[in-house]
Amino acid sequence: xxxxxxxxxxxxxxxxxxxxxxxxxxxxxxxxxxxxxxxxxxxxxxxxxxxxxxxxxxxxxxxxxxxxxxxxxxxxxxxxxxxxxxxxxxxxxxxxxxxxxxxxxxxxxxxxxxxxxxxxxxxxxxxxxxxxxxxxxxxxxxxxxxx
Length: 147
Prior knowledge:
- The protein is an alpha+beta fold.
- The protein contains five helices and five strands.
- The chain has helices at residues 12-17, 69-78, 83-87, 93-96, 127-146, and strands at residues 21-33, 40-49, 57-63, 100-110, 113-123.
- A hairpin with a 7-residue loop joins β2 and β3 (57-63).
């Protein structure tokens, strides 16, 4: 049986997986995945800003190993996760839904696999400052390139 799936052949999927930059996002889905060596939290983010990427979403992982807990803690604090749950070392997948914050992402290809890296986090209240700083740096670089 054949099924028609609109957009299957288009490049839209590549655009979504190749996001690189600074985004104001909302957590759409969070799932803890157990793995013997590297358990992780799988997250799906919906982009709120910049408006040119508003309808897109992307996924990323935050590992829960001893060496990576600092990054998970950074994410939870900046996204406004419940401090009481955090002090009890608990992550509630439902409490993560709809949290908002700023993420800097990069895209990597390694051994033929594509990865969306979650490089840095900031509270949603800092979006205006960070996005203005980023756009000012871009303007300076483009004006220097023109010279």
